[in-house]
């Protein structure tokens, strides 16, 4: 199957807003190509492998946000929505916002970003390592080996990193965890590494569930993580001590109240995928649903909430 690849020229500051616009229009994924993400070869940080200077020199001056759309009967409307969204955000800080379009095969999409995905640290002990890269683990490291494929969750996005950090902060061992919208399974695997007794990883996307299952098996957690396709709110038996949902603001607002029955009294709800402009709205929704917001983390354009079910 061929996909329509869209490329938007922007800046580091504008890349998150552009990505959100593309995803809101139905993109199956985005990738940000930014020179700033490549470490300075003269300043190694201890976790990245040695970087070829030519790789950084060959990268474009603009920040490029790539997205992929299915060439179906909704394509024209989706592209029109994207153009309208880009027009609405035009400002000097976001660059030209030029939109390019081309066709690309599945296998090209799956390979194009891998050259930039290297091992990196998330939180104090977690290390995210692509399955195709090598990494010499340090004492105390908890290594998540991940191949996100077509699912969201490489760990590079700010929301994923904040969720992992909050899981590391909250988990003491032997908890039951639910990961809503599991994507690649990265948060579920992180929870298991941090001592969770059992994790339910749930997603409505069959491709995401397939990828999550592959990553769970690769990390050796098939006995402690159950990955399923479905709607958590229709599963009457699922309850947890900690629920993590790295999704979007609209779903969190609608989801917060019925989700409360799935979290044991005194339990924790970690919510992210929240663009900063929606922070107050989401915080108000979870408070009205019966949670106490215990901590707010912000990174770039994104927000994560740590909530307690009182």
Could you name the key traits of this structure?
310 residues, alpha/beta, Alpha-Beta Plaits, Rossmann fold, 2 domains, 7-stranded mixed sheet
Radius of gyration: 19 Å
Categorize the overall geometry.
Answer: globular
**Largest sheet features:** 7 strands, mixed
| CATH-derived architecture of the largest domain | 3-Layer(aba) Sandwich
Give the CATH H-level superfamily of the largest domain: Vaccinia Virus protein VP39
Number of domains: 2
Topology:
Layout: E1 2-10, H1 15-24, E2 30-33, H2 53-58, E3 63-69, H3 75-88, E4 99-105, H4 106-112, E5 120-122, E6 126-130, E7 142-146, H5 158-170, E8 176-180, H6 186-193, E9 198-203, H7 206-218, E10 225-229, E11 240-246, H8 249-259, E12 263-275, H9 279-288, E13 291-299, E14 302-309
Parallel strand pairs: 6-7, 8-9, 8-11, 9-10, 11-12
Antiparallel strand pairs: 1-3, 1-4, 2-3, 5-6, 12-14, 13-14
């Amino acid at each position: 199957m061929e996909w329509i690849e869209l490329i938007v020229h922007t800046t580091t500051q504008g890349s998150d807003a552009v990505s959100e616009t593309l995803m809101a229009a139905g993109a199956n994924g985005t990738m940000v190509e930014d020179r700033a993400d490549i470490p300075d070869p003269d300043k190694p940080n201890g976790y990245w492998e040695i970087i070829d200077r030519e790789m950084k020199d060959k990268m474009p001056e603009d920040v490029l946000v790539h997205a992929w759309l299915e060439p179906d009967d909704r394509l024209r409307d989706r592209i029109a929505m994207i153009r309208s969204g880009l027009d609405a955000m035009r400002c000097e800080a976001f660059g030209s916002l030029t939109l390019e379009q081309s066709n690309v095969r599945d296998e090209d999409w799956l390979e194009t970003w891998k050259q930039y995905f290297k091992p990196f640290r998330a939180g104090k002990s977690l290390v995210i390592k692509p399955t195709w890269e090598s990494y010499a683990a340090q004492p105390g490291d908890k290594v998540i080996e991940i191949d996100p494929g077509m699912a969201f969750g490489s760990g590079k996005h700010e929301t994923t990193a904040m969720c992992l950090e909050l899981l590391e902060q909250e988990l003491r061992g032997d908890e039951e965890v639910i990961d809503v919208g599991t994507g690649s399974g990265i948060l579920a695997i992180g929870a298991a590494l941090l001592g969770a007794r059992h994790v339910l990883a749930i997603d409505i996307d069959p491709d995401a569930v397939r990828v999550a299952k592959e990553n769970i098996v690769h990390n050796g957690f098939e006995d402690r993580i159950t990955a399923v396709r479905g709607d958590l709110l229709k599963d009457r038996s699922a309850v947890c001590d900690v629920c993590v949902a790295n999704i979007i603001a609209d779903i969190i607002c609608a989801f917060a109240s019925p989700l409360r029955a799935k979290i044991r009294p005194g339990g924790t709800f970690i919510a992210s995928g929240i663009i900063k402009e929606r922070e107050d709205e989401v915080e108000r929704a979870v408070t009205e649903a019966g949670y106490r917001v215990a901590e707010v983390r912000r990174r770039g354009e994104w927000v994560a909430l740590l909530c307690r079910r009182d």
